[in-house]
Amino acid sequence: MSELISDRIPRLLALVPWLIKRPGITLTQTAEHFGISVDTLTKDLWQIVLCGLPGYGPDQLVDIDFWDDDRIWVYDPQTLALPMRISPEEAIALAIALRRMSQIPAVDEKALIDRLIGKLENVSGNGSHLLEVSQPAQIALSKLVEEALVQNLGLSFDYSSAQDDLSHRRVSPVRVFSVDDFLYLAGWCDQAEAIRSFRFDRISNPSLLAPLEHVPPGIAIEVTGLTDLAKAPVALVRIESTISWVTEETWVTLAPLTARDADQGQILIQVPYLSKEWLIRWILSMGGAAAVLDPPEIAREIHEIVTQSAIRLRPQD
Hints:
Helices cover 40% and strands 23% of the residues. The protein is an alpha+beta fold. It starts with a helix and ends with a helix.
């Protein structure tokens, strides 16, 4: 299985500063520290010595000797001598995003998020705490929604629709989701007798209720859409290593490789799709780095689209 880019890049960035502090350390000791094989470490080192500053002449590349006596010597680290540090601007941006995340009701690992915010504020000089990412009323609503979700309670509130129609709602919350930086509450609405979504900033006068009666079973699964995705057809897709980041998507799974596939360095993935149109658009968005192998009828349709586009773009004689 190909190594994920998200695993390799941090190791490559950490490797040179670590080696500088341990001149002459062996390949075996280094590989054991990073939890990789000597062969993988050797590939990493060959990758690093091909990196450097623009111009990429002999005096502009990272210079590491590791092939003579099984020991590693860093002679010229270029700009990699110190561990990577997050800038104050990056720390502030991340802290703001984490603050926003921590205010989503019932989000997992909230204590961990708060600890990360504290560490980032130390880096940024406590600059991010000056920025409010939510109004006090929204924060209070988030706490009520979280309590309702955790304790399986109902919610009562006034709701103003996009057409400014005001109505009173009694809702059994199911989950909270975000679209275009707006938080939404999804749940069973007593008034509509169906699942509805409510935007946080249009909710007013919220209060907790006892658990609502007559709520159909299984609405949590229906709202999340996981049932549809689990039942969706699956396409077998071949991708190039340039977009191997796709394998990190939660809805994508790696497909088994044959010996022939492995020899050619191919990456095969299984992609669930709810519509043929979505799958075609997704494949085309990869700019030729992805191809459908199965089902064949979709592969043919994509081929026809690409062919017709090429004909239209071909210069006329």
